[in-house]
Queue: 3 jobs
Job 1
Amino acid sequence: MNTPAHLIFGTAAFGKPGNARVTCAAVLGALSPDLSLYLMVAWARWVQDVPARTVFREYYYSDEWQAVFAVDNSFVLWGVAFGLAMFVRNRIAIAFCGAALLHLAFDFPLHNHDARQHFWPLTDWVFISPLSYWDSRHFGHWIEPVEVAVALALALSILLRFPSLRARALVVVAGVAEVFASGVWRFVF
């Protein structure tokens, strides 16, 4: 799924109205599995001046980048962290790790050739799904509108649950970003 959808899903599932720390933890947890990608792309593009085509066709698939993605996209590592958070009953850590696991749960069945090693360090196996959230060659043209519709429905539910003007503004921004991000994939692929 697009990152804005992950942010909306994570907030809807783990955010708590009236508890900004738990809600922030949910947002950050939902972002965490994609954060390394954003940082590495930004470094390659803006510091090293590597063309986007090279970044997304070569660097993304390199052993070095995939090794980083294996860590932050590991059901095993996030599952252990979530278990520890539950054990110590830390609501902030539960929201953070829970939202990250939810992110992985949606990524797992929706990545084709760009899939990750979701069970590292136990195995380097990669599930190549027949589906892709973005690639029309793998039903992205069907999945994308469903993703957008569900994300916008959840954004509306967040707007109704969260009275804070700041929270509502951020949800609107995430909803607009989701619509924009899905539109980009439609035109690119």
Job 2
Amino acid sequence: MKPDQLNRTFAALADPTRRAILAKLAEGEATVNELAEPLPLTLQAVSKHLKVLEQAGLISRGRTAQWRPCRLEPAPLREATHWLERYRQFWEGSFDRLAAHLHEIQKGDTHG
């Protein structure tokens, strides 16, 4: 993933409202009105959040007559997940080493 795309993805994900919108879209397509319904925001504010998500490539908007459904686009999330995976492996290795070290300390305390 290109760094600028990764930056747009994480910048879009940094906002809890946008994460809530993505969670709703993970259930299926929705209109702006449907997305705005549970949120304590105006339609204009929700539209601004949708624009950020769309510019980051996280959503797309269709057009069927007057209906403009929004849908989740998984590719940027998949790329961000791959990027994060390297760090998950690092932390898991660190935790494994810490657990082994603590186990050694505990063994020493029981024999000392």
Job 3
Amino acid sequence: MRYFVALSLLLLFSCKGDAPATSKLMDYDLMKHGMPIKIMAPAEPVVEASDMGIMKDVTVKGEGNYFIQITSGVATTTDVAALKSTQLMEVKNALFFDEIISEEDHGFIYRKKISEDRINHDFRYIKIQGDQEYMFQVGLMGQFSEDEVKQMYEAVK
């Protein structure tokens, strides 16, 4: 009987951490900030929006080192694969690019190695909706772990 109880407790506690990190996030509609899209975000995020005429820029910040930047503008193509390919090329040619962590049809997660002691992560996710193109990535300032970036990537899909 003790063996069964110990095994049950072990399974209970080992499964506790398996819940997706995105479960702490809630639906958040960006329409009131000029973008007719929804993402997952922490409760009561801080949102800043800029309309630069031909392009919009929205940042969404929240607890847990959650920081997403979304840019939008008129789509130059509806070929997401071509847009992703361009983003991949730009990222791979950047100074601190280290490696692609994961890749899907609409985006990818990658690592930047600034130094041996300073590793950062980022992502790109592309969404075409109507005649608009949306580009998602982490905010421009900050350091993000692979797990944090995976959570934000899942939040914008």
